Amino acid sequence: MSLKKFFLLSSAAMEKNKNTTLRAFRKEVGPKKRKLRRFLTKLSANVPKNADQLTAAIEPEVWKEVDCLGCANCCKEMTPTYTPADIKRIAAHENMTADAFKEKWLYKDREGDWMNKSTPCQFLNLSTNKCRIYEVRPADCAGFPHLAKRKLKDYIHIHKQNVEFCPATLKMVEKLREKVESVEL
Q1: 120 and 161 in one domain?
Q2: pLDDT digits (tens, 9 = 90+) for 82-119
Q3: What is the pLDDT of residues 154-184, one digit of tens each?
Q4: Statement to judge: residues 86 and 112 lie in one domain
Q5: Is 20 buried (19+), middle (13-18) or exposed (0-12) by CB count in 10 A?
Q6: pLDDT 10s digits, 114-165
Q7: Which residues, in sequence order, are bridge partners of residue 116?
Q8: Which of 72, 55, 91 is nearest to 131 (CA)?
Q9: Both 110 and 131 in a single domain?
Q10: Any residues with CB less than 8 A from the CB of 98 and at least 6 apart, and which?
Q11: Is the same domain home to 110 and 60?
């Protein structure tokens, strides 16, 4: 989501989600998680031809209902993957060398990806849910939650993971399920 789009969210949606808490989200997602993951598994075996158009149509609806600043769960419980370009850009922003940045904040996982050493993210202001390096954040963060960024068939496995962490993903999968199942009936 672009910065402009992020800040142009309707004030009604912002007000509605201002008091979103992780506890409330977990309570909401708990009983739905298994059912939505089964739906996504079934969908991955038979992706409708219009799936990409559906997700593109659903995405604006989702952003009318979700305020990322009311949650920041992605920053609190997940870690982005840092590309070499991300590391170079953020290190420069922090007046550090890439090696010093990696040493201080990151570790290399089994797949060879650079990840945060800990959660919540070191750049998250926990009192405001704002990112201290928003302008230069990792590409993974900029694209999150990847609702309609790529072909749905390529991201179903990501949505299966994110449905329990991200209110926007939860809403998108619920809306997608409603549309797909209404066509099947």
Answers
A1: no
A2: 999 999 999 999 999 999 999 999 999 999 999 999 99
A3: 989 999 999 989 999 999 999 999 988 887 6
A4: yes
A5: buried
A6: 999 999 999 999 999 999 999 999 999 999 998 887 789 998 999 999 998 9
A7: 106
A8: 72
A9: yes
A10: 84, 87, 88, 91
A11: no
Q: Are strands 124-125 and 130-131 parallel, antiparallel or unpaired?
A: antiparallel
Cβ burial 146-157 (10 Å sphere, 16+ → b, else e): bbbeeebeebbe
Task: Give the side-chain half-sphere CA count within 13 A for 49.
Answer: 0
Q: Which two tokens stand for residue 93?
A: 């922003």
Q: Name the domain count of the chain.
A: 2
Are 7 and 71 in a shared domain? yes
Half-sphere exposure of 87 (CA within 13 A, CB side): 20
pLDDT > 60? residue 13: no
User: Do both 23 and 68 map to the same domain?
Assistant: yes
* Domain span including residue 35: 3-76+149-184
Which H or E run includes 115?
strand 114-116
